[in-house]
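Input (structure):
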């Protein structure tokens, strides 16, 4: 492993989505070394310069998956996660971990598939006031590493029209409510992902990012 990886270099996935600058700014504020990933080859096994990988951004499920497949990132991400290397997904970075999404219509009759590393699907909120935009109470499991040291029922900033249905998967780490109680974070080994935006959530968001990056 390279010296950069031993120092805890975070690779931030740049696949054409927005909102990447605020994530980089948050990591810089915490003093956490990070740079954008330059290609899927940088995620390959022991040759990777990164100790951890962060997948941030806002986006459409179908468009994002198309970009990941065409660029070669999709298989690189599956391999990284299957090897249980540290990973944090934010917003769309959570949703693409699942098998499918109601947001993405079939292409030529073929369903759009997610990375499929967690069982379940992404579904649209049933209410009329969609998307959910703003702060929402988030309740985490007591044994969560991601939420360690945070006040119970902390508030984080959300903006999304779809939520993940984990089908009762044990990976569920936190919940929020918007028309229904839904999973807002997952943890499974070194895999973690959240529906909200920690980089836009003030002190609690910075603490969560630090928990992940320094664990």
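Output (sequence):
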């Amino acid at each position: 492993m390279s010296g950069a990886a031993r120092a805890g270099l975070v690779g931030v996935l740049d696949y054409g989505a927005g909102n990447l600058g605020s994530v980089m700014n948050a990591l810089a504020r915490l003093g956490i070394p990070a740079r954008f990933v330059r290609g899927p080859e940088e995620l390959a096994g022991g040759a990777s310069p990164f100790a951890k990988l962060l997948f941030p951004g806002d986006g459409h499920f179908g468009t994002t998956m198309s970009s990941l497949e065409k660029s070669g990132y999709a298989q690189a991400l599956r391999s990284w996660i299957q090897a249980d290397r540290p990973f944090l997904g934010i917003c769309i970075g959570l949703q693409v971990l699942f098998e499918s999404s109601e947001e993405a219509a079939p292409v030529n009759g073929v369903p759009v598939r997610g990375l499929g590393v967690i069982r379940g699907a992404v579904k649209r909120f049933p209410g009329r006031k969609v998307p959910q935009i703003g702060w929402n109470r988030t309740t985490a499991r007591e044994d969560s590493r991601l939420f360690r040291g945070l006040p119970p029922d902390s508030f984080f900033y959300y903006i999304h029209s779809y939520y993940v249905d984990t089908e009762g998967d044990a990976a569920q780490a936190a919940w929020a409510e918007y028309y229904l109680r839904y999973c807002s974070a997952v943890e499974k080994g070194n895999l973690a992902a959240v529906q909200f935006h920690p980089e836009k959530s003030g002190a609690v968001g910075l603490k969560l990012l630090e928990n992940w990056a320094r664990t």
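Notes: The radius of gyration is 16 Å. The first helix runs from residue 3 to 6.
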